[in-house]
């Protein structure tokens, strides 16, 4: 059921979280002669040749490669270390003898997690730090130094239990002048410390933190106010527009990987960094150029146009750069419909191969087909012979509307773009059109869903791995035996 747009969105979130090297794993081996859909592993997205979207998988991989080429340069430019309250989790009673930490289980309702989300929403970039990692922190030149980078402050939020060694190290850092924020945390010892020398030492340190007025040890209930007192670098202006980013630094320059998580953005985006110039690079389309820039007292503003779900890479420099401007497009006329008769050819897929369709009205193919053909999953080619647009413009925006899968666009046999979603639009220069007739071809590849539903309803085997027969997560998808079934699915996943 997964689309490449959904995979891209997941990868983008990894990039925003600081990951800069994506590795695919969990793909099932499948013999070439095994009937469709081959061997499917229950716990993965099926990115393999039996998936119709396989033909456009390279577009996603090229995009990831370009993003990683930027994100693997320089070093992370996060500013806050957030203490991971491991001991607090160990103190929580549960049904299991062993806690599981994959997916951050057990932290959903904690102040620690709420604080992490709050800092992100306000544009504060942070990294988690463990008890073991804290032991490697040093303080010099007003910054916390770790093997992974430098930070302005360490935040302890909603924490009750902390090991003595961690407390001793933090006490040393505080006495050296390091910035520590203690947010709604009342620290106690861990393990069997009661009535021991260690517990007395623990209470003495906590008492000193209450008694001695360290200017660099901030306490309070309002985390954002505490961060503001320390003048922590953040990107609140960018996040207020529905954008999110991860920032890296190379010498005096910065790289921003920016994703639009909201509606279309056409704004002057404020950045909390000084620069003489900024270059924009679209890792999906390869469009690049110098951005329009305004200098502000605390940084710069950059003019950015970004569709929902799209990303842009921004590079700042303290030197003026002389390159072409990043292209900005604005509509100059009403929408123009592509008129003519469409020829729809079914290239590959199943359960059956429908006959070619000629139509003036473009609908989901499930609405144009009858019988078993309605369950078709695969790759389809839409062809239209048309005249050039009647209204003159240097560029045209081709809007495909809603597409459920991937769409590869050719104009006069030359590639225009491959769209993965969520938007399916492409910029076409006027020079690409012939003066008389033009051939527009759009090749759409769907998910596997319809064909799987057909196989399930006709008792054709497709669950060939034992674990694919696990109970369904949703009650609506359970059959009479309590296991997952596609029999009750609704056909209609056409394009």
Protein architecture, described:
The chain is α+β, with helices and mostly antiparallel strands and 495 residues long. Helix content is 20%, strand content 27%. The protein has helices at residues 4-16, 57-71, 86-90, 111-121, 131-134, 164-176, 197-211, 223-229, 236-239, 365-368, 449-457; strands at 75-76, 80-83, 126-129, 138-140, 143-146, 149-151, 153-157, 180-183, 217-220, 243-250, 253-260, 265-271, 277-281, 288-290, 293-295, 300-306, 311-317, 342-350, 357-359, 377-386, 395-399, 406-411, 414-419, 425-429, 438-445. The strands form six sheets. Strands 1-10-11-17-13-14 form a six-stranded antiparallel sheet, with helices on one face. Helix 1 runs parallel beside helix 2 (57-71) and helix 6 (164-176) packs parallel to helix 7.
């Amino acid at each position: 059921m997964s689309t490449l747009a959904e995979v891209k969105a997941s990868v983008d979130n990894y990039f925003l979280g600081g990951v800069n090297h994506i590795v695919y794993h969990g793909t099932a081996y499948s013999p070439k002669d095994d009937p469709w859909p081959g061997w499917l592993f229950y716990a993965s997205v099926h990115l393999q040749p039996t998936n119709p979207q396989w033909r456009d998988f390279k577009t996603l991989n090229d995009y990831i490669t370009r993003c990683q080429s930027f994100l693997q340069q320089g070093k992370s430019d996060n500013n806050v270390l957030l203490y991971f309250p491991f001991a607090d989790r160990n103190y929580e009673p549960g049904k299991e003898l062993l806690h599981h930490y994959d997916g951050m289980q057990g932290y959903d309702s904690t102040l620690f997690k709420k604080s992490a989300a709050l800092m992100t929403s306000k544009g504060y970039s942070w990294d988690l730090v463990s008890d073991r990692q804290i032991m490697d922190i040093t303080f010099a030149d007003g910054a916390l130094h770790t093997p992974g980078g430098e930070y302005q402050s360490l935040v302890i939020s909603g924490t009750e239990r902390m090991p003595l060694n961690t407390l001793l190290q933090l006490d040393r850092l505080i006495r050296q002048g390091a910035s520590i924020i203690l947010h709604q945390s009342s620290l106690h010892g861990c393990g069997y410390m009661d009535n021991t020398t260690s517990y007395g030492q623990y209470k003495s340190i906590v008492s000193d933190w209450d008694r001695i007025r360290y200017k660099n040890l901030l306490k309070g209930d309002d985390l954002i106010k505490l961060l503001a007192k320390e003048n922590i670098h953040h990107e609140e202006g960018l996040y207020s527009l529905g954008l999110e980013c991860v920032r890296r630094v190379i010498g005096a320059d910065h790289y921003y990987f920016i994703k639009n998580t909201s509606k279309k953005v056409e704004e002057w985006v404020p950045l909390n960094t000084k620069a003489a110039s900024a270059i924009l690079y679209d890792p999906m389309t390869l469009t690049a150029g110098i951005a329009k820039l305004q200098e502000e007292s605390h940084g710069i503003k950059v003019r950015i146009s970004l569709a929902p779900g799209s990303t842009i890479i921004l590079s700042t420099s303290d030197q003026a750069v002389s390159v072409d401007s990043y292209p900005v497009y604005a509509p100059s006329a009403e929408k123009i419909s592509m008129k003519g008769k469409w020829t729809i050819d079914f290239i590959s897929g199943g359960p059956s191969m429908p006959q070619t369709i000629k139509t003036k009205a473009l609908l989901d193919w499930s609405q144009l087909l009858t019988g078993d053909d309605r369950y078709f999953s695969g790759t389809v080619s839409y062809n239209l012979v048309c005249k050039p647009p009647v209204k003159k413009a240097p560029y045209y925006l081709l809007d495909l509307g809603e597409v459920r899968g991937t769409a590869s666009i050719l104009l006069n046999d030359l590639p225009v773009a491959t769209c993965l979603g969520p938007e399916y639009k492409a910029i076409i220069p006027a020079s690409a059109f012939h003066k008389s007739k033009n051939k527009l071809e759009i090749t759409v590849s769907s998910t596997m869903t319809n064909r799987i539903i057909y196989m399930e309803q006709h008792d054709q085997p497709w669950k060939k791995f034992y674990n694919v027969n696990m109970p369904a997560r949703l009650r609506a998808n359970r059959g009479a035996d309590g296991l997952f079934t596609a029999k009750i699915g609704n056909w209609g996943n056409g394009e």
